[in-house]
């Protein structure tokens, strides 16, 4: 008989709880560096997504362009998982062991705070890198303009729209990490 090499959903849940407990014990410095890396990786995925989406969008339908851009964005999440970096959206899973009292709420909030700040710092570092490297100037500054248009659209969302999109995004990220 062939042995199956995968975990059942309950086993995955147990493994996630154990991983979350270990995350809450990581030192501040290490956690902050891992969070900076995750922020940079996600920003890299976003920049790659903008470049691909911009290029394909000029040649094909908007639906296909958005599909490809979203697919390429996932490279950032793949880098986070492969490198073992700490992304806030995935760390929202720490609420699972906190609800069953296996992780204190204080440890959860400490981890979330460090990771959220580190992700922000990492994303800003990559934005500065992109700016000073001139990558935003690709295609006569149109890639930079596309990034600004995306940002402008996001800041003009209503609170409910932004909340619902954030929940949907986090749902998919947690599913991918799961």
Question: Key features?
Answer:
mainly alpha, 8 helices, 78% helix, 0% strand
Question: What would your notes on this structure say?
Answer:
- This protein is mainly alpha-helical and 178 residues long.
- The protein has a single domain (27-177), classed as Up-down Bundle (Glycerol uptake facilitator protein), CATH 1.20.1080.10.
- 78% of the residues lie in helices and 0% in strands.
- The chain is built from 8 helices and no strands.
- The protein has helices at residues 9-23, 28-57, 62-83, 88-91, 95-99, 105-133, 142-155, 159-177.
- Helix 2 (28-57) packs antiparallel against helix 3, helix 2 (28-57) packs across helix 6 (105-133) and helix 2 crosses helix 7.
- The longest helix is centred in the first third of the chain and has 30 residues, at 28-57.
- The two termini are 28 Å apart.
- The mean pLDDT is 89.
Q: In summary, what is this structure?
A:
This protein is 78% helix and 0% strand. It is mostly helical and 178 residues long.
Into which percentage range does the β-strand content fall?
under 5%
State the share of residues found in helices, binned by percent.
over 70%
- Count of individual beta strands: 0
Strand count, sense and barrel status of the largest sheet are: none
User: Kindly state the mean pLDDT as a whole number?
Assistant: 89
Number of helices: 8
SSE sequence, one letter per element: HHHHHHHH
The H-level CATH homologous superfamily, spelled out, is Glycerol uptake facilitator protein
